[in-house]
Amino acid sequence: MKSEEITTVIIECDDFVKFFLYPHEVHNFHYKDFINKTKCSPHHETFQKDSDIPWNGWIFRGQASPLWNLSPTIERTFSSLNIPLNKYHEREISLLREFQRTFYQYSNHIPDLNDYYEWFAIMQHSGAPTRFLDFTYTPFVAAFFAIENLNFSQEGEFCLWCIDKIWMEYKFKEFLPDFIKKQYEIDPLGKTIETQKIIMNNENPCNTIINISPFYLNERQQIQQGLFLFSTNLSKPLEQILFSMIDQEDEKNKIFKLVIKYTPGQIRKMINFMDKINISRRTLFPGLDGFAASLKLKSALAWLTPFI
Q1: Which residues make beta-bridge pairs with 161?
Q2: Which of 217, 214, 216, 220 is CA-nearest to residue 287?
Q3: What's the DSSP call for residue 54?
Q4: Cα 121 from Cα 241, distance rounded (Å)
Q5: Which pLDDT value is given to residue 72?
Q6: What angle do CA 21, 25, 31 make, to 5 degrees?
Q7: Which end of the chain has fewer beta carbons closer than 10 Å to its terminal beta carbon, N or C?
Q8: Crossing angle, helix 264-276 and helix 139-147, to 10 degrees?
Q9: % of the chain with per-residue pLDDT over 70
Q10: What radius of gyration, in Å, describes the C-alpha atoms of the chain?
């Protein structure tokens, strides 16, 4: 499926909370029909029946503009440097090696050198470019990252990318070569060193997207309820591979873009709501750096509150 064919749902900012807690009540959105149109595995159907929580089993990523691509930092960084796509993996390994050689100066916990997932997670949360793309299990944390740097005095749009994680956990294996599928039969979670080495060092990389949480979770990842998506083939854009996984009509809604339209008054109310439910830089990034960064939005809230 091409990017322009991806399902897009548009709502007003005032309906955001309702969309995720009481989607049946959102005007012009038929939640039951939307969900029922999509193909489910037997495991997924059981999972849904056992829970009354809307969007259970979905993951989310917030972005400040609906026009932005789903691109990990390694794609954005290397693209800005005009590095050819076919050189991305080579450069990635160089960055990883440099990070590993120096990391011991900053931490007593040194992961196995071949534990790519843990190393990339540490690099990601330290600000280094990686193939990992941040997602979260909670739409409210995703929304915070989308709106924290918006211009609150203008109307506009932000978006959340929404993916059915249960579907993805089955679907990605369809694109694996047989010898990797056999490895997943031995290692269903795909987190052993042996599985990681096969995925990362495959001379003929397959085209699929895997979601992963490293075995050892850092504090930020736990608080943000975070996980990562990554591409098994850096020579193609992640977004292109992700969308190509939708190859059946009844899978169309398994990935969709939720566009939220806002006015200055609406986005101010949403920022205030986030503060009231304790979602801020201070809580999502524990420590002095997170607290200091939160003061920027706090000062905006103090100024804007009288106008809400």
Answers
A1: 61, 257
A2: 220
A3: T
A4: 21
A5: 97
A6: 75
A7: C
A8: 130
A9: 92
A10: 20
